[in-house]
Structures are given as C-alpha cells and as structure tokens.
C-alpha cells in the first residue's frame, strides 16, 4: 500500500475506534452481538479495500505522470 492509503485508513480508523468506545459505554445491557457484527463488517471492508488497492497498484504500476504528447 502507498502512503495515501495509510493516511486514508488512519483518518477512518481513529473515528471508528472512538465511535466503538462510545457505543460500548452507551450500551446499558452490555449486548456485544451488534458490536461484534460491526467489527466483523469493518474487518471485511478493510480486507476488501486492501485487496482492491493492491491489485490496482499492480495493474497500473507506480507511474508518476503520463507520458507527454508529441504534438507540435
């Protein structure tokens, strides 16, 4: 993964962790089934994003800029 992907995950992971902590504190019955499903869904989404990002980078390569045209 590239640096942009790590920044993107960092900006999404920190609010998600804060939200999960807040959700645990708000739950009076301490029912962790919904929280477990939420965590499983987040892990599946993160795995899918990593797989798609790695296949995209392999497919496109690390091309910095497109080749200039030779029109004159």
Any overview of this molecule?
The protein has 72 residues and is an all-alpha fold. It has one domain (3-62). Helix content is 72%, strand content 0%. The relative contact order is 0.10. The mean pLDDT is 75.
Summary of the model, kept short:
The protein has helices spanning 3-26, 33-60. The protein is mostly helical. The longest helix has 28 residues, at 33-60.
Multimer state: single chain
Largest sheet: none
- Indicate the mean pLDDT: 75
Poorly predicted runs of 5 or more residues: none
Question: Outline, from the CA principal axes?
Answer: elongated
Number of domains: 1
Q: Could you outline the blueprint of secondary structure elements for this entry?
A:
Blueprint: H1 3-26, H2 33-60
Brief descriptors of the model:
elongated; single chain; mainly alpha; 72% helix; 72 residues; 2 helices
């Amino acid at each position: 993964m590239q640096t942009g992907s790590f920044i993107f995950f960092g900006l999404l992971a920190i609010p998600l962790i804060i939200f999960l902590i807040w959700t645990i504190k708000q739950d009076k019955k301490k029912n962790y089934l919904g929280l477990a499903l939420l965590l499983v869904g987040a892990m599946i989404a993160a795995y899918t994003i990593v797989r798609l990002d790695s296949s995209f980078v392999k497919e496109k390569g690390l091309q910095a800029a497109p080749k200039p045209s030779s029109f004159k």
